[in-house]
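Take a look at the protein record below and flag anything odd:
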Amino acid sequence: MDTTPIFTDDTIVFGLLMLTLGFVFYTSTSKNKFWKKFYKYIPALLMAYMMPAALTTFGLIAPEWGIENEQGQLIEVTGKSQAYYIASRFMLPAALVLMTISIDLKAVFNLGWKALAMFGTGTIGIVIGGPIAVYLTALVSPETVGGAGADAVWRGLATLAGSWIGGGANQAAMLEIYEYNTANYAGMVIVDIVVANIWMAILLLGIGKQKKIDKWLKADNSAIDTLKEKVSSYAASISRNPSLADFMVILGVAFTVVGFSHFGANEISEFLKANVEAVSDKKSSWSSFGSQFFWMISIATILGILLSFTRLKKYEGAGASKIGSVFIYILVASIGMKMDLTKIADNPGLIVVGLVWMAIHVGLLFLIAKLIRAPYFFLAVGSKANIGGAASAPVVAAAFHPSLATVGVLLAVFGYVVGTYGAMLTAELMRIIAPVT
């Protein structure tokens, strides 16, 4: 079946994404009683995420398209939108620079050990969640998680573990290491997208209920509140009516850093691949260090932090972080368009495995957060630093406050580092438990 959407021109796609964002922000700031009540329960960020998903679901736009088989798997790609690529490679690093430029690095470190604890809990939740999900599913439907040789489902689930602990580079490494049948790989990608995006939507919904969740967790938010207050107070003290020159300097700084980040990422990645055998070997646990995206995000974040020690920090008063937030929302919309709600019905067995797996990850996060009284912010960002990595962790962090985006990136970098190791451990545990059918 041909899955070509109505609109394939990225100029039109971008226009539709901006239309949804404009609608969300217009209605969310409206004095209309209906919209006031609506956004009391549904966060604007969730709407910015779900409306593009609806456009994809109704076939208006699509992240990629081509010919699908009877199982709903894309067997031939005939076209692909570049909206997410542009947003993640250009706007995300620019947003990180602009949101980091006013950061108080000492205050970030003062957030304490709970942020790392929740990140580690998220990783452990993925590692133990995989084999538990396989075991529970095997009790009811062994053929769903069975198979032998290259068709063994546990091999495919290993790629899911790579994606959920680290990111795309770790996922690709798992595909190489465990040699899963690539003909079946599309099914795993669907599980990854569907389950991860369902959890993303729930997380965003939870941000609107943050105070209630934190009250239930008995969380201590003092360090987070202090950081937000410092950044807000500083922004207020230097606030001014921005001029055209201010906007041009802000964008000039942001995209100069983006360009340098891409240059540095390309050079470092190519150097490591050419000179370090462990990085060039796709089966190596070090292969994720060959990812250009990893280095691009790392360089942009480091440069943003360095700029926060210069006079450029004062451009926060002209709205640097607000412009960064614009880029973040465009990224949110482009992530949302990757979610086709009809795919939830495809391959229901594997979707159930993914949902059980995610439920264990989430349950463990809430358990530990309750025990150590960690704020919902640490829970949400710790989870997304694993599931979603550097592309979505800063999005979730910035939803709490723009000054917190850096925390999401720093934790996501840990995800890249431990992703391959954690995924290999998960895969071996699943291999032991999985039935051979």
Q: What stands out?
A: DSSP finds 19 helices and two strands in the chain. The first strand starts at residue 64 and ends at 68. The chain has a mean pLDDT of 86.
